Amino acid sequence: MPSKKFSLSGKAPENDLLLDPEVGRKLSEMVGAAPWVADMDWDEVVSLTAYLHVREYQEGQAIFQEGDIEPYMGVILSGVVEITKKDAKDEADKSLVRMGPGRAFGEFALIDGEPRSATARARQAAKMLVLTRENLLKLSRENKHLAFKLVFNVARMMSRRLRQTSERLVEYL
């Protein structure tokens, strides 16, 4: 069994995420700025990395499709991700949002485990952190305080997005 690698804080995450200079730098930039890690200090983010893993996608590659049942949330480290939804009338994909580094998406499926309500596609080669529902539940068993902070932040993100959607929707009523 390989020896544990230690982060700058002296804690030993279960994975080597922080050994990747790009991941460590991007995570440090997100602390205090990105909504999904709001109110977390660096040591808490380091602890959280034990529950995250990295995925990479080529330009044009689907991250997930509307209707997929894969309960995880992604956080963009690099690249651009576009979220689209099929129009019920003509089945055409309608762009909802394009987002870049620091932005999180897929949080509804993470929380409720329901099928994906939209499609996510890499519009530029993208690298992202992934938190699966399984790892969120593991985090909640192993570190209730950190899990609460994370879920509270995700709930705040969801609330903000629902408010924005309501504001846009009223324009069409």
What is the structure about, briefly put?
Helix content is 35%, strand content 24%. It contains 5 helices and 8 strands, in the order ααββββββαββαα.
Structural class: alpha+beta
CATH architecture: Sandwich
- State the helical fraction: 25-40%
Low-confidence stretches: 1-13
End-to-end distance, in Å? 61 Å
CATH class: Mainly Beta
Order of helices and strands: HHEEEEEEHEEHH
- The H-level CATH homologous superfamily, spelled out, is Jelly Rolls
Quick one: how many beta strands? Answer: 8
User: Helix count, per DSSP?
Assistant: 5
For the record, the count of structural domains works out to: 1
What's the alpha carbon Rg, rounded to whole Å?
17 Å
Main beta-sheet annotation = 4 strands, antiparallel
Question: Tell me, what's the shape?
Answer: globular
